[in-house]
User: Fold this.
Amino acid sequence: MTPAGNTMQMPLRERLGRRLTQLAVGLTAYGVSIALLVEAHLGLDPWDVFHQGIARRTGISIGLVSVAVSAFVLLLWIPLRQRPGIGTVCNALLVGLVLDGALWLLPTPQTWALRGAFLVGGVVLNGLATGLYIGARLGPGPRDGLMTGSVARSGRSIRLVRTVIELTALAIGVLLGGTVGVGTVLYAVSIGPLAHVLIPLCTVRRAPAET
Assistant:
């Protein structure tokens, strides 16, 4: 027979396994979603306009720039009293590496129809990926920690806070020399509503014993 202690622990192990898997899938999907936007050549999401500006000035790949910026953004968590988790560390390291790898693997679409498909697919996949890795409850990514921390401190909606943060990153990115386009606008106005809907849907709920 299974000891009573093990029967109590088994559901926790199962949930942790699901959460880790959801985290890995979400972060991988996030990196791929950015690569789709890059390959579409119709404008990047606001944070990657910022990353692209730095990459163009330094000659470093956009993925490695993303990793470096993640480390810097974590410093901005301090006044928000955010605490990093394993998901935070994995996000900071994995997304940029997946981005560079996906850019190496993905073809560059040659027709407007395919470029549009890459763009729309990238935006939607990005919203889903955000819901998956935040919903795993293992710590938000560095950039999304700004969002969740600001939501907690201000009481504003996810939709509003996310949109404000994205537009701020966009403005700085343009000043650094990043490029914008129709994809930038689509992402900026879409990601807030997508995150507002998908984060609650993808969140792993606590078991009764954990509440």
In short: The radius of gyration is 18 Å. Confidence is low (pLDDT under 50) at residues 1-10. The chain has one domain: 19-204.
